């Protein structure tokens, strides 16, 4: 992709965000954003421990007890994604005998927009 196309995409994303901000600020009285419209929309949140690529041959040979080596190092933070978009990093915790995640770093909105390319 050329630099001009990259700039055009960034301009579109910035313009869209500006329009949304203007709509939010004028949507409710007093100038505060009216977020009630989107607060009940369900999103899928996922935590990724790691990933790898294997051949179909190796995939078909997997059985109970097989070990798949991941590209992520032990102790590295997990990726927290919402609808497939990275939003944060965290670490695994146990809460009432269930797994959870403690968020250690949140990706800034501007960085999330950059990663959408």
The CATH superfamily of the largest domain is known as SpoA-like
**CATH class bucket of the largest domain:** Mainly Beta
Shape: extended
The CATH architecture of the largest domain would be Roll
Number of helices: 3
Structural class: alpha+beta
* Percent of residues in helices: 25-40%
End-to-end distance: 10 Å
Question: Strand-residue fraction?
Answer: 15-25%
Which whole number gives the mean pLDDT? 78
Order of helices and strands: HEHEEEH
Q: Please outline the major beta sheet.
A: 4 strands, antiparallel
User: Within the largest sheet, what's the order of strands?
Assistant: 1-2-3-4
Q: What integer value in Å does the Rg equal?
A: 20 Å
Low-confidence stretches: 2-10, 24-28
């Amino acid at each position: 992709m050329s630099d001009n196309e990259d700039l055009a995409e960034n301009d579109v994303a910035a313009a869209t965000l500006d329009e949304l901000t203007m709509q939010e600020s004028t949507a409710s009285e007093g100038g505060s954003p009216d977020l009630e419209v989107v607060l009940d929309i369900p999103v899928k949140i996922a935590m990724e421990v790691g990933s790898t690529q294997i051949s179909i041959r190796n995939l078909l040979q997997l059985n109970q007890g097989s070990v798949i080596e991941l590209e992520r190092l032990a102790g590295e933070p997990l990726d927290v994604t919402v609808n497939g978009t990275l939003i944060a990093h965290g670490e695994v915790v146990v809460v009432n005998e269930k797994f959870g995640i403690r968020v250690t770093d949140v990706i800034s909105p501007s960085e999330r927009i950059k990663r959408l390319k």
